[in-house]
Design a protein that fits this description.
The complex is a heterodimer of chains A (434) and B (151). By secondary structure, chain A is of the alpha/beta class. Chain A is 61% helix and 7% strand. Chain A contains 16 helices and nine strands. The two termini of chain A are 44 Å apart. Chain B is an all-alpha fold and 151 residues long. The two termini of chain B are 32 Å apart. Classes of the chains: A alpha/beta (434), B mainly alpha (151). The interface between A and B is large, with 40 and 31 residues.
Chain lengths: 434, 151
């Protein structure tokens, strides 16, 4: 298990370091001198120290990462140890490449007759610094393979290095010694800073990915149909269909206002025409107003002309009466979600279809307590404890049951938002919908 | 309109069965051993049942306008036995003219009936008409109510 994790980590590290390097457009983090043969002795020492520091600190970070994986596998990649490991990987790759170039250049000088004896002598002195490092003269035997495995084996993989069993006591003792050195502290700070930058970049990439693949928009495909099943946890949208319905809708509105809760009303345009004052009061109170067709036919049983009237026509009427854009639509009875021409018509009018994942069945049940229990049972069964709850604001039992549910939300500290504000939360990557 | 005619009794009975499966799955399935419907499927089948239920409300409302006060009151009294009070209450709620015809006592009559319980519903289900034809129809209709979604 452990070796699998390390192998996996190695692959991830290699992949990430490659992609990060490509993003940055260079591999110059530890580059000291563009003309490697002219690298000074102190610069060579800086590189060799860097390689030692990278592997020893890296091993210690791997231990921390393994611990994080055991404790919380899902959150391990968000830890500082993981981003710092990525930083170490990037730094050490660059340093090893630099050292190999220096070694190669210096070897050529020492063998090239065009160089003077003095030049050759200086090159050989520097070369001995590199070779001594690769021989491992200054490292405990047990740590030599860890630090020098790549340089000795040339192109041997990170996996091979870490499959080699490191004596933890020797490692800890060596790290304790290094802790006293200023150069090691500077190196650790460098790793922390690079790690922080990597973490920010990865976070931004994740956000970009989430907004591009999970964005909700008017579409005949899946992006244009909401059921509530993937809503943020503990976030519910209270929705009312078929209104406005006179006294019942007015009472629902008052109940919402009294509790400072916002809901979404899928109105019938015919009802908006009949009761414009009630519809306006709902809209003016900051509730979402959406369309539920003109007069609630089953749209799978109407022709194209009627379909346009029920979807496009209803939107125009509601917008004209209330003065706000209508962005959401709900099919009467929920019928036609799988019919591409119906979904295309909704998208054509720039609306998102909203289904539900909690059906209170309030239209057929005159007992408010029974409706409430049914709603709570489904809410508790919802996998993410979030979604869309369906009521109808034209029945007295719905008025009473939804008021009880509002009290339940308050008591249980459950987030309730309009559908549109949850869509905005998801699309804009906001932390909440309030 | 549904292509096949179903009686109001068949539609109300089907609705009672499906809602009972949603509310009390274990007890209902034990009571109705010939039905292989789980709560998830019951939720799906209720969707195409809703428009037919609406049609039955309108159908009965039309009939009731020609009934006299005694007949309406008799229905309101006897509906408990068949677990149909909520249906008839909805007919009255939607039709002011029928309420006026039946008299002020009929208003909110369902509230004065014994509340539906698991036991009373299961008892009603034992004497209900066959609902197989309705279920066959609903299974076909259900397909237009299902779709992929992002959330």
């Amino acid at each position: 298990m452990r070796s699998w994790k390390i192998l996996n980590l190695a692959i991830i590290c290699l992949l990430v370091s490659c992609s990060m390097a490509q993003q940055n457009g260079s591999r110059s983090i530890a580059k000291i001198n563009s003309h490697d043969s002219k690298a000074s002795a102190s610069q060579i020492n800086e590189i060799t120290d860097g390689i030692t520091h990278s592997y020893l600190l890296g091993q210690s970070l791997i231990n921390e990462f393994d611990k994080a994986l055991d404790e919380n596998p899902e959150g391990a990649m968000d830890t500082d140890s993981y981003s710092e490991l990525q930083a170490v990987r990037m730094i050490v790759d660059d340093q090893e490449e630099q050292l190999e170039l220096i070694q190669s250049d210096l070897s050529q000088i020492s063998e090239d007759s065009t160089y003077s004896y003095e030049e050759k002598a200086v090159a050989e002195e520097k070369l001995s610094l590199v070779n001594n490092f690769i021989n491992g003269d200054e490292l405990p035997h047990n740590l030599q393979h860890l630090v020098l495995g790549n340089l000795r084996g040339k192109k041997s993989s990170f996996k091979n290095v870490h499959n080699y069993k490191v004596d933890q006591n020797v490692l800890n003792k060596t790290l304790r010694k290094l802790e006293r050195k200023e150069s090691f502290q500077a190196f650790k700070n460098k790793v922390k800073n690079v790690g922080k930058k990597i973490k920010e970049l990865v976070k931004r990439q994740k956000q970009d990915r989430s907004t591009s693949s999970d964005t909700i928009f008017a579409s005949a495909g899946s992006a244009g149909n909401i059921t509530g099943r993937g809503f943020p946890a503990n976030t519910w949208a209270l929705t009312y269909d078929d209104g406005p319905g006179g006294r019942t809708s007015t009472t629902v509105l008052q109940n919402l206002k009294n509790r400072n809760i916002k809901a979404t009303f899928f109105m019938l345009a015919r009802q908006v025409e009949a009761l414009p004052t009630t519809a306006k009061a709902i809209s003016d109170a900051g509730m979402d107003v959406a369309s539920h067709s003109y007069d609630h036919p089953q749209l799978t049983k109407v022709g194209q002309v009627a379909l346009e009237k029920q979807i496009g026509g209803s939107k125009k009427i509601i917008e004209a009466k209330l003065g706000n854009p209508v962005k959401l639509f709900r099919l009467p009875y929920g019928a036609g979600v799988s019919v591409s021409s119906i979904r295309a018509k909704i998208a054509e009018h720039n609306m998102i279809h909203v289904f539900w994942n909690v059906d209170t069945l309030d239209w057929q049940d005159k007992n408010p307590t029974s409706i409430l229990n049914r709603a709570i049972k489904q809410m508790n069964a919802a996998t993410n404890k979030g979604g869309v709850i369906l009521f109808h604001d034209i029945h007295q039992q719905s008025v009473e049951a939804s008021a009880m549910l509002m009290d339940y939300f308050i008591k249980e500290k459950i987030n309730v938002c309009t559908v549109q504000s949850i869509v905005d939360q998801i699309n804009k990557g906001l932390s909440n919908c309030q | 309109m549904a292509p096949i005619y179903f009686t109001p009794d068949e539609i109300i009975a089907t609705l009672n069965v499906l809602v009972a499966i949603i509310d009390w799955p274990q007890d209902t399935i034990q009571n109705q051993t010939n039905l292989a419907i789980n709560p998830e499927l019951a939720h799906k089948l209720v969707l195409p049942l809703h428009p037919i239920w609406d049609e039955k409300i309108n159908e009965i409302a039309l009939q009731m306008t020609s009934w006299d006060k005694d007949r309406i009151n008799a229905i309101a009294s006897e509906c408990v036995k068949k677990c149909q009070c909520d249906f008839y209450q909805e007919v009255l709620d939607r039709n002011q003219a029928i309420q006026e015809l039946a008299g002020v006592d009929i208003k909110d009559f369902a509230d004065r009936r014994p509340p539906k319980t698991k036991e009373s519903i299961l008892k009603c289900l034992q004497t209900m008409p066959s609902i197989q034809n309705v279920l066959t129809y609903l299974n076909k209709e259900m397909k237009s109510f299902e779709s992929e979604s992002i959330l």
